[in-house]
Amino acid sequence: MFAEADKKHPRLAPSETLIGAGTMFSGDIVFSGGLRIDGEVKGNVRARHGHSGTLVIGEQGRIEGGIDVARLIVNGMVTGRVDANELLRLRSTARIDCDVTYALVEIDPGAVVRGQLLQRQHAAPIAADPQPVLTPQNP
What we know:
single chain; mainly beta; nine-stranded parallel sheet; 0% helix; disordered N terminus
């Protein structure tokens, strides 16, 4: 219902939980699956241990606290610490006022980051596709 449709990244799960506009939540949130925040959260937001999670912050969404998720899509504002273990996508209306750790990042023109962008070191290097072996053909 609240899915962030994206043909380039079909692994993004639809949001199963919504914190709607006008809602203010104080405390830590632990979730699995998908979470969309259009309201305000004062506290940490993280995916349940052992579960990947997709967090979408809507244009009106605000988080004051740390974020630790696999995939993060930001349209709103974040003040705290961000750790996106797989993918970080900053839309043009994103406002980030903290340090950000990520594996892969997409930043739209207009997004603002006031902090360091730190690329996560992969535990094991990703193997490159083997180069084809070219053998000369006899005419």
